[in-house]
Write a structure and sequence with these properties.
76 residues, mainly alpha, two-stranded parallel ribbon, 54% helix, elongated
């Protein structure tokens, strides 16, 4: 189903762009961004945010040293 795969890729790219824009608007404390702030800004589920950040599909600005996942641990 090439149509479905293309649609999923478009959705994934859209989520990545949304996260990249969110980095411009969320508070950055000592180079650290909270995953909760990204979630509140984008309404993207935390598990998906974690997956997108781990897949290196999101361009994180150079002034952001890391994303703090706090109490949000990925269930494996």
């Amino acid at each position: 189903m090439p149509g479905l795969e293309e649609e999923l890729a478009k959705l994934r790219d859209g989520y990545c762009r949304a996260l990249e824009k969110a980095f411009e608007r969320v508070p950055i404390r000592n180079g650290v961004v909270s995953v909760e702030d990204l979630w509140l800004e984008t309404a993207i589920p935390v598990d998906l945010i974690v997956e997108l950040l781990e897949s290196e599909g999101v361009k994180i600005p150079p002034h952001v040293e890391r994303v703090d996942f706090g109490n949000f641990k990925r269930k494996r």
